[in-house]
């Protein structure tokens, strides 16, 4: 994620603000009920590594409402799946999903054309969607410590 840079069009004072929910032990309902309060934010952390997540078991299917999101971290939670609606975050450049219990990713993750960094290590992934190959800006993929990720040639 060292490569993360804001778009040059960022001119507002909040463009570098990071909303960090790590360690807060949020209930999923709390996240869901307050999601719209963060609609203009670009960087949100729901966890970053083992033992600092919120114990979230799911990502809100309404995550797509955060249209300006450029970086989101769900690391260190208890996620089993990623909603397809995540693929609608057209400005997303960094996606952290490490240290979870993910077994698969939705194919429409390939819609994240600006994605540069995808951190997936320490999950239960067996394969990655072959559509990921289409992500031309993807320069960092971390997939170690999974159940044996097969046969997609990654960057």
Automatic annotation (TrEMBL):
InterPro entries given in the database record: Leu-rich_rpt_typical-subtyp, LRR_dom_sf, LRR_domain-containing, LRR_R13L4/SHOC2-like
Protein name: Disease resistance R13L4/SHOC-2-like LRR domain-containing protein
Pfam family, one: LRR_14
Keyword Magnesium tagged: no
Positions of the Disease resistance R13L4/SHOC-2-like LRR domain: 48-145
Gene3D superfamilies according to UniProt: Ribonuclease Inhibitor
Keywords: Leucine-rich repeat, Repeat
GO cellular component terms, semicolon-separated: cytoplasm
């Amino acid at each position: 994620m060292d490569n993360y840079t804001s778009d040059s069009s960022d001119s507002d004072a909040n463009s570098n603000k990071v909303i960090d929910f790590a360690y807060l032990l949020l209930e999923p309902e709390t996240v869901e009920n307050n999601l719209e309060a963060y609609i203009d934010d670009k960087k949100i952390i729901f966890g970053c590594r083992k033992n600092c997540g919120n114990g979230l078991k799911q990502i809100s299917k309404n995550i797509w409402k955060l249209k300006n999101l450029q970086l989101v971290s769900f690391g260190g939670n208890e996620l089993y799946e990623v909603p397809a609606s995540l693929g609608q975050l057209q400005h997303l450049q960094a996606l952290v999903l490490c240290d979870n219990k993910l077994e698969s990713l939705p194919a429409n993750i390939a819609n994240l054309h600006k994605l540069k960094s995808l951190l997936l290590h320490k999950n239960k992934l067996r394969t990655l969607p072959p559509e990921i190959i289409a992500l031309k800006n993807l320069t960092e993929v971390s997939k170690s410590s999974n159940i044996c990720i097969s046969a997609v040639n990654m960057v």
